[in-house]
Amino acid sequence: MGCRPAKIKASCPNPHSLWGEADLTDTVTTDVAAQEVARDRGLIRAVGTWGLAFSIINGVVGAGIFSLPSAMTAAAGDKAALAYVLCAIAMAAVVICFAEAASRIPTSGGAYGYVDAAFGPLWGFVTGVLTWLASVLACGGIAAALADGIGAFVPALDTISARTAIILTVIVGFSWLNIRGVDPAARAIGVMTAIKLVPLLLFVILGAVTIAEMPAHAYTPATGENFGKAIILALFAFCGMETPLAVSGEVAEPQKTIPRALFISMGFVVVFYVAIQFVAQGLLGPGLAGSATPIADAMAVVSPGLGLVILIGASFSRLVWIGSDLFGAPRILFAFARDGTLPGFLGTLHPRNATPFIAIIIHAAIAAALAITGTFEPLAILSTLATAGLYFLACAAAWKLSREGVALFGKPLGFRGMGAAAILGMVSMIVLTALAEWAEIAGLVIVVMGSVAFYWAQAKVKRAA
């Protein structure tokens, strides 16, 4: 994309139709608008508020919540729930920035599109790489954890061949579902997300009833250093919304739908996480800190048989999360291809279903390879640090787009405190990154520098041609 606009205003008389050139009024005259239209041409805007909201909830509430309460209690004692609330304030600023930017640039790739429109294609490409890398690493790690968990539960499946078969079956199955169409995929993920939340909702309700009849527990006060660690752990737990938002080019009435879905989903997640932490603490007390399977152990206090339900629920949660990743992340590769920064075949749509099927297949293949050859922990660490980088860039982009009045698809969110939200979000991500290990920070820097070098090399080849 060439010039950056001072102001852009656009509207679409039929938000349910394809977002092609015929849908835009003649008030759109800039290169930015043309680029966003070209990127999403041929896609069907069919995803509604609840379909997107459930996908975001699924992307955020992963299997990690089944083990997080013990780590939070070890770090913060009985103040663990407070750590959730404090980090939720920082995350709220990031959510506001995403909602603002998405209401202005509702395009395939999500954060990639926001940063591209605000700061140009170079930084847009870096953001897209960070978003996709975080997604594919997390998908590989969680698929590996799913296979390992099943192998531990069923010893006969604890072999290399069985592990590989489990990973391929899950990833191929969800790839097929997403290729079939964006609407049926969104609906299926919504239903499966509701099902995966049942064990956790059961835990909260039955646990709260049991706690009412139990004496209060005593905890060792948390130190300031450990409390800070708990805040970082909680902040990581809130990450994940960026991947489902990559499907923004297929959302109906995006300027309204995306902010609503974000606020509904992330508001639910905050309340849900705090409730789970309170109940787990109330059931296990200080013993929660040393539990390897905290929610299952806490549920066993209510009823030994229900602990098994929670263990099964953790595996199902990983399963559904993979489906959500394959729903959103391939759209980043699709957007790159449509913008000419990756080979054009990745931007090919399925002739019948209008889905980016080649991008889905490529993303799935890489995730499967990572899962088969890797393990959860190192992939998860790399994924979360990449997320911090893309959140910083997305917050900065939202602020700039708001100041310049960019609006491609009707009236945007228009949050009044946009500057304060952006600053809080960016500072939070800097602090989070600074708390990582030096080797991990170096890895993030290498990814950013490698992305810049690739973009410049690709641009040079284009100019030479």
Describe this structure in words.
- Helix 5 runs antiparallel to helix 6, helix 6 packs antiparallel against helix 12 and helix 10 (254-284) crosses helix 11.
- This protein is mainly alpha-helical and 465 residues long.
- It has helices spanning 31-40, 49-60, 68-76, 80-104, 111-119, 121-153, 160-180, 182-211, 224-237, 254-284, 294-302, 304-328, 330-338, 357-373, 376-404, 418-434, 438-464; strands spanning 8-9, 406-407.
- Helix content is 70%, strand content 1%.
- Residues 1-29 have low confidence and may be disordered.
- The protein has one domain (44-459): Amino acid/polyamine transporter I (Up-down Bundle).
- The protein has a two-stranded parallel ribbon with strand order 1-2.
- Belongs to the amino acid-polyamine-organocation (APC) superfamily. Basic amino acid/polyamine antiporter (APA) (TC 2.A.3.2) family.
- InterPro entries: AA/rel_permease1, APC_superfamily.
- Pfam families: AA_permease_2.
- This is Arginine/agmatine antiporter.
- GO terms for molecular function: transmembrane transporter activity.
Enumerate the spans where pLDDT stays under 50 for 5 or more consecutive residues: 1-29
> What does the main sheet amount to?
2 strands, parallel
Global shape:
globular
Structural class: mainly alpha
Order of helices and strands: EHHHHHHHHHHHHHHHEHH
Please give the domain count.
1
CATH class: Mainly Alpha
What fold name stands as the CATH topology?
Answer: Amino acid/polyamine transporter I
Number of strands: 2
Intertermini distance: 18 Å
* Spatial order of strands in the largest sheet: 1-2
Query: In CATH terms, what is the architecture?
Result: Up-down Bundle
CATH superfamily: Amino acid/polyamine transporter I
Count of DSSP-assigned helices = 17
